[in-house]
Design a protein that fits this description.
The chain is an alpha+beta fold. Helix content is 17%, strand content 36%. It has a single domain, classed as Hotdog Thioesterase (Thiol Ester Dehydrase, Chain A, Roll), CATH 3.10.129. Strand 1 and strand 2 (39-43) form a beta hairpin. The structure holds Palmitoyl-CoA. It comes from Amycolatopsis acidicola.
Length: 157
């Protein structure tokens, strides 16, 4: 069985660094593309529409999660999100290229505080703040051990 804790983000066949679910497609299915420095281009695919022509709030949170971790991954190859808060300031249009600027507010040991702003032109559509952690070396094996110790599901639950 492969060692889950040896997992690292590797370039896909397209050369783009992607998380596991997107590797087979070779593109980020959330529509996040790193630009220069801490800038990212993000476009909400229409299938993430939550209302007519506007993004589902879950997509906005997921895009921020991806951007904030990618920003920290430039320094540290193993990250997880501990908390994420989003302020939804204006509806976010689908199929429009938006800009996101990330910022590392604080990094001490395993602890990271990060923030980001999503804009269209001069307008801020949403902001995010997150606490990230450098993943402990046994993060995934601890998870598997805990899961293996749970009772098997029955037809009643
Ligand atoms: C140039 C480069 C470009 C790169 C281009 C990349 C492109 C591609 C980018 C894609 C980027 C997407 C990135 C998404 C990133 C997420 O979204 S990660 C998924 C969401 N987050 C999670 O699943 C984390 C779940 N939470 C946790 O595992 C834990 O709460 C935390 C966050 C690790 C806790 O951290 P902590 O506060 O430092 O506390 P810690 O002392 O580690 O643990 C506290 C307690 O939590 C529990 N715990 C912690 N860890 C575990 C564990 N693994 N198993 C079980 N229990 C645990 C334990 O009860 C522990 O208490 P003890 O029993 O040890 O006393």
């Amino acid at each position: 069985m492969p060692d889950s804790d040896s997992f690292t983000i590797e370039p896909s066949s397209s050369g783009r660094m992607l998380c596991g679910g997107c590797v087979p497609d070779g593109v980020c299915r959330l529509g996040v593309e790193p630009r220069d420095g801490m800038w990212f281009d993000v476009t909400c695919p229409r299938h993430w529409q939550g209302g007519p022509g506007v993004a589902h709030g879950g997509w906005i949170a997921a895009a921020f999660d991806d951007v904030l971790n990618t920003a920290a991954l430039r320094t540290e190859p193993r990250m997880v999100t501990k908390s994420l808060s989003v302020e939804y300031l204006r509806p976010v249009p689908v199929d429009r290229k938006l800009a996101v600027l990330a910022r590392i507010e604080r990094h001490e040991g395993r602890e990271w505080t990060v923030s980001a702003r999503m804009t269209l032109g001069a307008d801020t559509l949403a902001t995010a703040h997150a606490e990230l952690r450098t993943r402990r070396p046994d993060h995934y094996s601890r998870h598997e051990h805990w899961l293996a110790g749970l009772p098997l599901p029955t037809n009643e639950n």
